[in-house]
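ok, trying the design again with the full structure, not the truncated one.
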């Protein structure tokens, strides 16, 4: 196993696109780190630089403290799993899995033993003599995973490995990946644009936007204390509500004001333009609540109902528990759970408290 150090890493592609900018990060030995962000934010580029498949424009990449910027991919002892599996179509599963071991001149008996052990772990032992074309997407993805695991690399890199699978299989494979990491413990860097996958898999989550790291932390910390407006709205579904307005402090009490809407804020002070962030699950029914929501759409989920509506002309979404789905056109009185509102600087978007 190994630690990975990214020191002010940058990447400018030949056409001039600045895909990754000043990324500094220490990935701990044995950690499962997830890089998450919208399409085009530079996740794959960063991963490919760690693998050695893409040159580094500035900064250094270290593995266990040794700079590897110019080390060839095959000498980095890293295994990468891609979204499109990239299996050799003319080889059986057994040969696909053993291929890298053969290249490294590992004796046949050990190759066979490792392949069979990993195939057993991944539940694909009965597929060893099939070719990729004769398998489902989920089975092919297991083989791709198996091919990486048999190599016993220092680091695993995953680039959206589950995104070709249907929703149910994705959730199942996600849990299997997590359990595999708990058993094997190999340092892993996992790229996804799916914030739910990031939250559920990562020991730590790195949120990226436009080539830059926005926040690094354990999933719950990123969820509960997003560092800026971008992270706040990217992590969490349905998306956090944001309302532009201003803070007003009188007699030691702070209120957020936007038109007629006034919400007491119990953990921020000062004045000035801010964006208030409220997660849908932190809006709750209250007879004397400050928010009057006119319902546009109700979406029952079973254990809760997502209610989309307007307070004046401010669009809001609330995830309400234990109520019958309200009819369009009805009004609900809501309040924000104590301490649950987030304040961001209006211009920079940085968290205020
Ligand atoms: N080979 C390339 N040449 C030029 N520009 C590239 C190249 N590869 C990627 N880019 C650009 O670099 C930026 C980052 O791309 P990258 O593939 O790293 O994003 P990503 O976060 O992985 O996105 P996605 O979620 O869509 O896979 C994008 O603007 C992309 O168009
Ligand atoms: Mg990508």
């Amino acid at each position: 196993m190994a630690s990975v150090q990214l020191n002010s890493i940058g990447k400018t592609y030949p056409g001039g696109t600045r895909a990754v900018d000043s990324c500094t990060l220490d990935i701990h030995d044995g950690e499962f780190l997830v890089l998450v962000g919208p399409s085009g934010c530079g996740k794959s580029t960063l991963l490919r630089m760690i693998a050695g498949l893409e040159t580094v424009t500035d900064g250094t990449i270290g593995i266990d403290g040794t700079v590897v910027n110019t080390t060839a991919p095959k000498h980095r002892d890293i295994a990468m799993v891609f979204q499109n599996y990239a299996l050799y179509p003319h080889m059986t599963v057994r040969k696909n899995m053993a291929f890298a071991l053969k290249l490294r001149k590992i004796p046949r008996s050990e190759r066979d033993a490792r392949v069979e052990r990993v195939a057993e772990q991944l539940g694909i032992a009965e597929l060893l003599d099939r070719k990729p074309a004769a398998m489902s997407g989920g089975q092919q993805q297991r083989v791709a995973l198996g091919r990486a695991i048999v190599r016993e690399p220092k680091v695993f890199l995953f680039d959206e490995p589950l995104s070709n699978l249907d929703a149910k299989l994705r959730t199942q494979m996600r849990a299997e990946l997590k359990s595999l990491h708990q058993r094997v413990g190999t340092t892993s860097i996992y790229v996804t644009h799916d914030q739910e996958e990031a939250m559920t898999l990562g020991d730590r989550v790195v949120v990226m936007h436009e080539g830059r790291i926005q926040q690094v932390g354990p999933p719950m910390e990123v969820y509960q204390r997003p560092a800026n407006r971008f992270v706040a709205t990217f992590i969490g579904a349905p998306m956090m509500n944001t309302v532009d307005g201003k803070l007003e402090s009188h007699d030691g009490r702070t209120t957020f004001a936007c038109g007629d809407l006034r919400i007491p804020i119990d953990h921020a002070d000062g004045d000035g333009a801010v964006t208030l962030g409220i997660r849908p699950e932190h809006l709750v029914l209250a007879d004397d609540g400050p928010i009057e929501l006119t319902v546009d759409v109700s979406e029952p989920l079973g254990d809760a109902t997502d209610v989309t509506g307007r307070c004046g002309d401010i669009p809001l979404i609330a995830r309400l528990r234990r109520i019958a789905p309200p009819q369009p056109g009805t009004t609900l009185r809501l309040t924000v759970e104590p301490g649950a509102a987030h304040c961001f600087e209006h211009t920079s978007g940085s968290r205020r408290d």
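Keeping the full-length input from now on. The first strand starts at residue 4 and ends at 12.
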